[in-house]
Amino acid sequence: MAFLRSAFISAFVTYLLVAFTYALTQLFRGMEPVWSWMGMALAAFGPVAFFTWVFITKPARTNQHPLGISLISGLGLAITMLMSWRYGDAAGIVHIWTGLIFIFWIIYLRWYSTFSHRDAAALLPGNTLPDFELQNSSGEIVHSGSFKGKAHILPFYRGNWCPFCTAQIKELAQQYREIDAAGAAVVLISPQPSGKCQVLAKRFELPMRFLRDPKNMAAKRLGIDDAWGTPMGAQLLGYKSATVLPTVLITDETGRIIYSHQTGNYRIRPEPAEYLSVLASTPSRSTRLSVKI
Fold first, then answer.
1. Could you tell me how far CA 180 lies from the centroid of its own chain?
2. 259: closest CA among 274, 237, 241, 245?
3. What pLDDT does 2 receive?
4. This prediction's pTM
5. Which one in 16, 77, 94, 245 has a CA-CA gap of 20 to 30 Å to 205?
């Protein structure tokens, strides 16, 4: 099932682009029935616009259910359905192709985007951060015990290929002065290659530490590994198939977890204000523990 998720997103985006381009080509050529091709183009336009917006603007979060996109795609499907009733087989195949676009879009929203059972017990607030090992850019071992002594924000992110992850890191960079003033450090953790981490470090040029979990051993220890979380084809860019489920932890100076965000949808990330709110009320200042699942 995990392998199917990796293959699905690559296949869906590819099919979407091919279908949209083909429908536009047929429209420009004046192929009949024109309204069928228009419906197919409209059905594909919504998801294409959504993914284009995500990769260009790189938002940290979206609506869990982008209703407007679904309505546009559904309208395109309805048009092809009407044309198939009117023209029969001449429009029937276009209706089937368009139906696949809409079905894949719903699968993307309801299945691919979501994670089930995001309740790793070891990461619940109140627990001590488990022992695990990471690597710095020089390949040296960094133990989780070294995070004691001050509060830490620990985002586990999937990789540079994920626009939501890079947007989340950008938000942290924009908040860095406030986070530093609150007495906390930021350690960004990913299984991606060291070179990819260095690209992000240079982009933001802030004293945030980028550490690697090269074999996902820490992620497995914490129960947040994602064996086939990387989209099929990204391996050609140097990424491993295994990645991590997006997770944010905040620990206090004793190494105790005071905040855990285990998102159930990869398009939903914590609001920036949450980190500062938690840091402003650490256990030493009579905070209450908080969890987001």
1. 26
2. 274
3. 76
4. 0.90
5. 245
User: How many Cβ atoms sit within 10 Å of the Cβ of residue 214?
Assistant: 15
157 residue type, one letter = Y
Cα Rg for the chain, rounded, in angstroms? 22
Comparing CA positions, the residue from 112, 106, 110 lying closest to residue 46 is 106
The two structure tokens encoding residue 15: 């099919």
d(CA 235, CA 177): 35
Give the tokens for residue 124.
Answer: 């619940």
Give the residue with greater pLDDT, 119 vs 194: 194
* Of 161, 164, 129, nearest in space to 243 by CA: 161
Residue partners of 7: CB distance under 8 A and separation at least 6: 232
Beta-sheet strands, E only, within 220-285? 225-226, 243-244, 247-251, 257-262
How far apart are the C-alpha atoms of 189 and 105, rounded to whole Å? 31
The label of the residue with tokens 């133990």 reads 143
The DSSP symbol for 271 reads: -
Question: Number of C-alpha atoms within 13 angstroms, CB side, residue 181?
Answer: 7
- φ, ψ of residue 189 in degrees (nearest 5): -125, 130
Query: What distance, in Å, lies between the first and last C-alpha atoms of the chain?
Result: 22
